[in-house]
Amino acid sequence: MQSIIAEKREILGKKVKNLRAQGVLPAVVYGKGATAEPISIQEKDFTKLWRSAGESTVVELVIGKSRRKVGTPTSLSEDNDSASGDKKNVLIQDVVFHPIKNTPTHVDFLTVDMNKTIRVEVPLEFIGESEAVKSGGILVKVIHALNIEALPKDLPHVISIDISILKNIEDSIAVKDVTVPAGVKVLNAPEETVVLVSPPRAEEEIKEERTLDSIEVVGKKEKEAEAAAEEAAAAEGAKGK
Q: How many CB atoms lie within 10 A of CB 38?
C-alpha cells in the first residue's frame, strides 16, 4: 500500500497561504463519526501520490505531531519520526486546484474501514485498436468512469476497456460487457453504453458545423460590443446629470 506522511496542522484560515509558499499543502482528514482533523503534507509528495493512486486507491496516511514552523523545512529525522505516527487507511476524497496554475491548493482525505464495502467512481482506460476506427469510424467515449462498490482492498485504480472488439461501424460496448476484477460490483445500468463507433461525418456536415460556429462567435462579439456601447452611453448620461 502506498503511503504519505502528514503533520498535524495548527495554522488555519487565511494564514495557510504561508504554508503553500513553502511547498506545503493544507489538508484535512475525516471519516464517519470522527471530527475533521487539519493536517499538512508536502506538495511534491502529494503530486506523486495523486498521479499513481487517484481517488480510487486506498493509501496509508501517517500523521505525526506538528513540529515545524512555517519556513522551516522538515528534516530527514523528523520524517523518520513521523513514520511511527498515527496511521489511517484513507482515500483521496477531494482535491482543490488553483484556477490558473492548476496546482493543488487543498486536499480532503476520507478514512475507510477495510472490512466494509465502499462506493467510488473509477476512471476508464481505453486500450487496443478498433478496426472500425481504422476504416474511418469515429470513436465516441460516452462515459469516462464507472460507479462501483467493493472492499477497499479490491478497489481498482482504473478499469480497462479493450476497444479492439469494435469491428464495425455502430458497434458498441455496454456496461454489461465490461470485465471488472473479482470482488467489484458495478452500479451503473447494465445497458448503459460505454463507448461506440459512429459513422464518419461527411465533409458538408463539417463545413456546416464550422459555419455555425463562426456565426455564433460573430453574434456573440456583436452583442458584447452593443452591451459595452450601452454601458458607455449610460455612464456619459450619468455624468451629464
A: 15
Question: Is 70 exceeded by the pLDDT of residue 125?
Answer: yes
Give the integer Cα–Cα distance in Å for 81 and 99.
35
Distance CA 155, CA 110 (A): 15
Among 83, 111, 139, the domain-final residue is 111
How crowded is residue 200: how many other Cβ atoms within 10 Å of its Cβ? 13
Residues 94 and 130 in one domain: no
Same domain as 127, residue 44: no
Buried/exposed 123-153: b ≥16 CB within 10 Å, e otherwise: ebeeeeebebbeeebeeeeeeeebebebbbe
C-alpha cell at 18: 504561508
Q: What is the model's pLDDT at position 178? A: 96
CA angle 126, 120, 184 (to 5 degrees): 70
What lies within 8 Å, CB to CB, of 129 at 6+ separation is: 163, 164
Whole domain around residue 85: which residue ranges?
Answer: 3-111
* pTM score of the predicted model: 0.69
3-state secondary structure of 42: strand
Q: In terms of DSSP bridges, do strands 3-8 and 34-42 run parallel, antiparallel, or are they unpaired?
A: antiparallel
CA distance 140 to 132: 12
Does residue 106 register a pLDDT over 80?
yes
